[in-house]
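Replying to the earlier thread about multi-chain prediction with a worked example.

Input:
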Amino acid sequence: MKKVKSAVFLAILFIFSGIAMAGEYQVAKKVDDLDVAISLDKNPPVAGKNMMTIAVKDNAGKPVTDVKIRVDYGMPAMPGMPAMNYKSDAAGSGTTFTAPIDFSMSGAWNVAVKILRQGKTSTVKFNVDAR
Ligand SMILES: [Cu+2]
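Result:
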């Protein structure tokens, strides 16, 4: 009886960890006076097309909508490959912005989400390992 119970428990554990892995790749950061939530639709992010979604809130949790967002992403030079740098302007208005991100190869990418608001730029930086 104990063996059956632990087998069921393990099966449930596998199901839940599978769901967790299939979720979005998420980054949440505070920068200046903004709360920025970023997600990529692929987890892990992949070489090729990924869709980034960006939401910006103020300290009070209120959506900040008067922003322009640009995503810079790149990979430093490596043996046999010059440095690569790309830009993607986020589309949308209101509470959610989306930007297509095309990682041209697998490996470590530097990502900078630049949020322009009232003449000031706030930048969220993070790294992504594209598979
Ligand atoms: Cu490379």
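The two ends are 42 Å apart (CA to CA).

Feel free to reuse this layout for your own posts.
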